[in-house]
Amino acid sequence: MAFNITSFFGKCKRVWRIMKKPSSQEFKNIAKVAALGILILGAMGFLIAIFMSAFK
């Protein structure tokens, strides 16, 4: 499997050109969803830890 570095940089350049900075509303929505995901995973871990310590 050959790796063509010029093709890689060409693709990176194309992606860089079409990127845009998110609006403040988009950023807030992304931050809310990420925070909610972190909270859910943390709560799941906490509940599993309590469950495991109850049956120790």
What is the distance, rounded to the nearest whole angstrom, between the alpha carbons of the first and last residues? Answer: 50 Å
Molecular shape? elongated
- Low-confidence parts: none
Tally of alpha and pi helices: 2
In N-to-C order, the SSE pattern is: HH
Task: Classify the secondary structure makeup into a structural class.
Answer: mainly alpha
The helix content, as a percent range, equals: over 70%
Mean pLDDT: 92
Strand content: under 5%
Largest beta sheet, briefly?
none
Q: Return Rg in Å.
A: 21 Å
SS elements, strand count = 0
Multimerization status? single chain
Give an overview in words.
By secondary structure, the chain is mostly helical. The protein has helices spanning 5-18, 24-54. The protein is elongated. The relative contact order is 0.06.
Overview in brief:
By secondary structure, the chain is mainly α.
Structure keywords:
mainly alpha; elongated
Blueprint (SSEs and pairs):
Elements: H1 5-18, H2 24-54
